[in-house]
Please model this.
Amino acid sequence: MKPLVVVGDTILDVDIEGVADRLSPEAPVPVVDVERQWIRPGGAGLAAALAAQSVAEVSLITATTDDHDGRTLARLLDQHVQVVPMLLRGETVRKTRIRAAGQSLLRLDTGDGTADGGPVSASVTRTLRAAGAILVADYGRGVAAHPRIRRLLTELARSIPVVWDPHPRGPAPTPGASLVSPNMREARQFAPGYAEPDELAKILRDEWAADSVAVTTGSGGAVLANGKRLATVPVPAEVRIAGHVGSDTCGAGDRFASAATAALFDGSTVADAVSHAVDAAARFVAAGGAATLSTCDSAAVAKAGTAEAGGSAFEVAERIRSRGGRLVATGGCFDLLHPGHVSLLRQARAMGDGLVVCLNSDASVRRLKGPRRPIVTARDRARLLIELSSVDAVVVFDESSPSALLDRLRPDVWVKGGDYSGADLPEAEVVRGYGGEIALIPTVRGYSTSQLVAATRARD
Model:
C-alpha cells in the first residue's frame, strides 16, 4: 500500500504547566512554580502524527538537525511516522508555552532553523513519487519553498491528491492542489481587501489555481469553494455537546488538513473529505487539542510529589480549586489497561489542571461485566492508573453509577469515552445539576477490554 506523505517544517512544542499564586518581588509579573513539562512534535510533525491515526503508513519529509531539540523531535516522531530528512540550517525551532490554571501566560520561540535550498536526497524524491496522497504542512521555514520539491508537487498533483495547509510566511501553493485549507486569519492575509469566507475561498481558489479551497472558520466549520460551487460545511450538532470544554485550538488546522488528506487518500470526494475534516477538527478541539498528543517530559520536571499524584481525590480537588484551577474527572472499570484507556486519560487531563479517575470497585465491575470480571483487582487497577503521568488521583466507588461520588467530588468537567450522547449517561443529571460540563471522547478503534478478554480465552 502506498504511504500518505507529509511535507513541511517540524517544530518542537513544549507546554510548561505550573501554579502562579504570587507576584515576583523584582517586577509585577507572576511567578510560576513548575509542576510538569509536556513535549510533542509540532508543525508538520503534528500533522504527520495525526495522519498516522487514520492511515497505516505515513512518511514525513522535513528538515532536521542533530541538536538537543532535534534529537528530542526525532524520538517523538519515531513513535508515529517514518522520517525522511532534509538538511536544516540553524537550530531546531522550539515553541514553549508557559501555562497556569489552564491559561497560557507566555510563549517563548527559539531556534532559527530553515531548510537548506540545495539538492535533496534520492530518498526524498523516491518518497514523494511513491505517495498515495500528499499533505503540505507549511510553517514558513523553507521546506515548501524548495524548488525541487515544488516541481515534484506540481507534477504529482496531476495524478494524486495534494492538500496544502498554507502559512503567511511561506510560498503560494503549487498549481493543481486538490485542496488548500487556510484559516480565516490566514485567508485575509493572503487576499487583503476581502473579509467574508465565501469571497476569500473563491478568490484564493482562482489565485492559486487550486481545484478547491476550504476556508476554516473555527466553530463555524468551513466554507468550501469546489470548482464553481460554494458550500458551507458546519460542525455536526452532536460534536457541540463537548465543543465548549476544550478551548485550546492549538493544532486544529493540522487536524483538519490531516483528516482531509486521509479521506482523499481513501477515495473520498473533496466535499466529503472537507465534511469529515470539519467533524474531526471539532472533536479534536473538544477533546483538548494538540495537548492530547503530548508526552510528560519526566527528565525535565519531576512529578509533583506523592500527595498530588496519589493523595485523596478530595484533597487533590481542594488543592486545584484553591489555585483557581479546573478539575477534570473520568470514570470506568479500566480492567486490563490498554492504549485506548491511555488515550482517553491523556485527553481528559489536557482539559484542566488535574485529573481524578473514579474507578469501579470489584463488586461494581462484576455487576456490570459478569461474574468472571474484573481480571485485575481494584487495588492493582488503581496502582496502575496512578503510575500514569496524566492521573493525579484515583477514587474507588461501589455503585454501578458514579453519580453519588460525583455529587461529592463535583468536577468542573466529567469526561466519558465511547458511543454516548449526553442524555445516555445516568450521571448527566447530577453533573449538570451542580453546573458541571460533560465532554465525550470517541474511543480508539480496535481496543476494548472485552475484546481482549474474548481473544485471550479463544486461544486457551
User: Anything to note?
Assistant: Residues 221 and 258 are 16 Å apart (CA to CA).
